[in-house]
């Protein structure tokens, strides 16, 4: 029987010395606390601190991580009856501390990523006091680092010494708000005779026959417990299954000692397979494991929803190098992914509804994979459940990021226990496709000047190359493991070699222009991305600088990347004007972010299957910040989100340079062949056709084909006044011969008609001049308004209707406001060279490095150690 503990917890400072900065009102006060939660959210709810996410509050709250904290509650309980066992189970404690019950120390803890279970049989009375004392987490982290021997890491604090969410100590998109707290549920569990311990299903399918092999641990209350316990496994078709049902049961003998294991294998005939989004349905089956005593009475029960599919990683030497592909049900999946970071710096606030919103953002953009990045957490089951339900593959990093990790005690045992627990907990989920050893540590060891400071000390190689693969092979042999991201399957190669295995592209953004994405034909891009600010309403809710400027103090506090503000300016210079006016700067940098990533994605897709997928850095944000995210922390979709949806459309036409000419890349990620005849036209900027031909193509199912474009059409007479249009309607591809800065763009609307419709507004715009990348920044008309599409280019005379969802009444003129109705043409007209203002720049590209031989720009220790604020 599970018993939730009472809700009324109290938080106090101490025990131990408090830093001087602790406010008087907090010292020694009994602060009402919420479990699950953390000190920051409790202090905030009690009105004792300002919102850490607003303005520059973050730096004023640094004392919290230097303060020891205690959580305490009292509760009544029946003492254990004869033969009964009582356990206290913490699903998550953050992080270094100890647990006491009625003054007795139950144990010390030092790992946020584990569950802690204490036997409290015999310790409970009618009135009990449960106490969790947390050390000052930053002090404890530094002490642990000193004891293990400091090792290289990025950012300020030695997060690599403690098993705590790395990005909680600040990241290049995350605040430095070091928490403590009981961050996952805590329960009391009373039981007799026996209970199920870890239950681990291994699910496979061969033809239409599914196999479920369950390894169930059984804990018994007493060593001489009865031998004849039975574990029963049943599978039944669940929701979403289109094809019939299957049910069977089997018993396994749980014999031998007080900790026993039963292995039960069940064949399930005629199963329907689980597929990733865009490839089929997501049928799932209810798996029930019950523990029965000799009389058949149920002692315990465990239920999960599973799915039948196979998954493998394909890494094969070929004429280009070594491939890297995710294969589901024997089909190579073109991965359209995004990286996932913790959705809140205080992860206890992320509930199922929040996960559902963010995973909905992924699905609506057509993403079929999320990579849970190693500087975060193993997310709660809700996350993986929703991915199962919606067909989003999960690539799960083990929790190591951008640092060297000691392989000695006490870290070692924590790492191994945590990994076993994570593999066991997540194994039932069909969406989980790949286990990955770490984020960028193989690369870091190679390139980031770690070797000298490390000497002959450990750095994590033993985890990535031996321990973790051993754990996956033992507990979860149905899933592939790769040692790191990036990683070259050929050990003779650099981990970030584009021709071998997975790759992270970070020279673009950090040092060189985004057009350099075309220098790479990567086999799989597990990270690449480009920064842009959050939506206007999000930004102005969080930052109240007067005046607001790209480099005003609050803006810089919410820009964590090394030289981030300068990189934004440098990156935009070859493409678009960079306005002084803040609202225009905001639009320009958002547009640049969207274009840069779309540029990369279209290029990568044009190389499918040589490049089997791309995972954008990053889907979400954990607080309001200028970052690589597609969707900001208030849930507003940035222009980038719409650009990614376009670039990841099941059918995409894109014009790409190849071998000195231009080709039409026909990217067909559907099961039907795509055959068509489309016009290819070269137009003057006013829309007059200068040349036209028809091209025919046939792209088979799940194939990309390249169709050379006729020279007569594609060779411009005046590159500054012409463009190419291939195809028609939403699937058409556009090509310009020069950057916007060189185009005489101007904004001119023939009409902007706004109509109220039942749940919002329709805004029909008709262009009088070429309107490039038209966006309706709807949140600026009303903070709740959401638009259905963005970045639509209209030729002179063309119209488009945007649909805005918004319950509130908005004056219709708001949608005509130049603050809301935006385009690249507007930017160029206002701020481009022709406007007589400085803007643009030399389309020269940084230093042109390829990111392979030397350390990439962002990777130098000085870069990564800084807080991201320019000196
Ligand atoms: C990669 C990621 C993160 C980082 C991102 C942007 O290094 O793994 O560490 O936030 O790039 O710099």
From TrEMBL:
Domain of life: Bacteria
Ranges of residues in domain Beta-mannosidase Ig-fold: 753-822
Catalytic activity line of the entry: Hydrolysis of terminal, non-reducing beta-D-mannose residues in beta-D-mannosides
InterPro entries noted in UniProt: Beta-gal/glucu_dom_sf (IPR036156), Beta-mannosidase-like_N2 (IPR054593), Beta-mannosidase_GH2 (IPR050887), Beta-mannosidase_Ig (IPR041625), Galactose-bd-like_sf (IPR008979), GH (IPR017853), Ig-like_fold (IPR013783), Ig-like_GH2 (IPR006102)
Region (Disordered): 825-871
Signal peptide (UniProt feature, chain positions): none
Keyword annotations: Glycoprotein, Glycosidase, Hydrolase
EC top class named in words: hydrolase
Domain (Glycoside hydrolase family 2 immunoglobulin-like beta-sandwich): residue spans on this chain: 195-309
Membrane-spanning parts: none
Recorded GO MF terms: hydrolase activity
Beta-mannosidase-like galactose-binding domain residues: 30-184
EC numbers, comma separated: 3.2.1.25
Family in the record: Belongs to the glycosyl hydrolase 2 family.
Name this polypeptide is given: beta-mannosidase
Native organism: Plantactinospora siamensis
